[in-house]
Amino acid sequence: MDLKSLKINRKRLQESLDEMAKIGATPGGGVQRLTLSDEDKQARDLFVKWLKELGCEVTIDEMGNIFGKRAGRNNDLPPVLSGSHIDSQPKGGRFDGILGVMGPLEVLRTLHENNVETERPITIVDWTNEEGSRFAPAMVSSGVWAGVLDRDWAYSRTDINGKRFGDELERIGYKGKIPAKKRPLHCYYEYHIEQGPILEKEGITIGAPKGILCLHWYDVYLEGEANQVGPTPMEGRHDALCAAAEMILKVNQLPDRMGGNMVATVGEIQNYPNSRNIIPDKVHFTVDIRSWDDDLALKAWELLRKDFEEIASGRGCPIKIEETWRVEHSPFDKTLVQRILDTSSQLGYSSLRMVSGAGHDASYMNQITPTAMIFIPSIGGRSHVEVENSTWADCEAGANVLLHCILKSANEI
Ligand code: HGY
Ligand code: MN
Ligand code: MN
After folding, report:
1. How many domains does the chain have?
2. Percent of the chain with pLDDT over 90
3. 290 and 344 share a domain?
4. Is the peptide bond before 104 cis (omega within 30 degrees of 0)?
5. pLDDT tens digits, one per residue of 85-98
6. Closest CA to 61 of 151, 130, 168
7. Are 351 and 383 in contact (CB under 8 A)?
């Protein structure tokens, strides 16, 4: 058959995404499938069921990564790998991550029903805990698989209720026996929504990121002195929340101070005892710094850290800082990026080379195999919110580009 005319089944892709969106559905039209939650388990079970229906060889490793392998003519050749993540943010969207698991599943379904054989095997994957929201850091399981992060360190990470990653993985029945260790790969494609405004603004269907920004995560803990808010004079207070407030504004001002090309955010904060008539004495907050320039991000952190220490001592609020996680910026494989651009135009889709501000498992895959990503527009540039949305036409377009890129790579000797 003329493979060029091969297309994915848009209706089936939409049905799979709709089916998955029912798992952890939130009233506002989003999903909540926190890593290793019951909802994550339910979605994983469904993914495994669909893989088995396709006759894929299903393996689950020590980090709960789920691999579905479709045999090729020559199974000694390293496979083409494509995947993303099933877990979501709290009140997250119906496309982030799951599109990059349902997309390659739809590719396998299309190859299967058209009896298309490929030289190489094709493997698709769901990476555990890409989001890093319940258990920091993000992309932890692709990081372990790539040999960059340590498995037992990952197992030891706890959520806000003190639950351990390793125990929760066991609890949902996805702590596999197979070592979460990289194996030879031919290349890796990740299909994902852009999660930003550029493609929609430019009226472009396919994004081909040249790579992903570096991500640097820090945790800041402040100690103050609790007291009754009424009788305690303002003078001499050690108010941990006020110290945090000053620091949070410094984070927000940092990119300007560093001349742009950077984003810096405090997304999470806990304040104790969090009672309106007690001066707060414990605060924890997170810092997320991203840039294409890793050195700039490190320089920015050193400046910020000095500011934090000055504010903390000025307010008599001892500070503890954890440099929780860093992943370098990832420049993708130029040949694969070009393949995405060329394939898009062969299929009649407009395309744009760009940068990914969002982190993805492709950051770690890029350290061990030629890697590239396929983006489609996010409506209103919104993501990590319940209103996250993309058109089915764009979902179809991205999946068709993925199909033909995978086909080209899977037939390379
Ligand atoms: O943080 C990120 O960009 C991704 O959602 N983990
Ligand atoms: Mn994602
Ligand atoms: Mn995300």
Report:
1. 2
2. 98
3. no
4. no
5. 999 999 999 999 99
6. 151
7. no
Q: Is 305 exposed, middle or buried (0-12, 13-18, 19+ CB in 10 A)?
A: middle
**180/229 same-domain check:** no
d(CA 241, CA 225): 10
Q: Are 77 and 202 within one domain?
A: yes
pLDDT at 1: 67
Q: Which of 327, 342, 368 is the last residue of a domain?
A: 327
Q: Which pLDDT score is estimated for 366?
A: 98
Phi, psi for residue 32 in degrees, rounded to 5? -130, 100
Q: Is any ligand 1 atom within 6 A of the Cβ of residue 358?
A: yes
What CATH number did the domain enclosing 375 receive? 3.40.630.10
Same domain, 78 and 126: yes
* Residue at which a domain ends, from 307, 327, 347: 327
> Which residue, judged by its Cα, is nearest atom 5 of ligand 1?
131
- CB neighbour class for 246 (10 Å; exposed up to 12, middle 13-18, buried from 19): middle
354 to 78, 157, 191, 241: CA distances (angstroms): 29, 33, 14, 39
294 lies in the same domain as 347: no
Can you give the CATH number for the domain in which 258 is found?
3.30.70.360
Report whether residue 204 contacts ligand 1, using a CB cutoff of 6 Å: no
Q: Is 208 helix (H, G, I), strand (E, B) or coil?
A: strand
Structure tokens belonging to residue 328: 């370098």
* Domain, as residue range, for 170: 3-213+329-410
Helix (H, G, I), strand (E, B) or coil at 84: strand
List, for the chain, all residue ranges whose pLDDT scores fall below the cut of 70. 1
Nearest CA to 359 among 304, 292, 269, 266? 292
Give, for ligand 1, the residue of 215, 263, 290, 326 to mutate: max count of ligand atoms closer than 8 Å to Cβ: 215
Cα 18 to middle of ligand 2, angstroms: 17
C-beta separation of 211 from 145 below 8 A: no
Q: Check whether residue 147 and residue 285 sit in a common domain.
A: no
Verify that 61 and 197 share a domain, yes or no. Answer: yes
Token pair listed for 104: 């390659």
For residues 271 and 160, membership in a common domain is answered with no
Structure-block tokens of residue 298: 């490190």
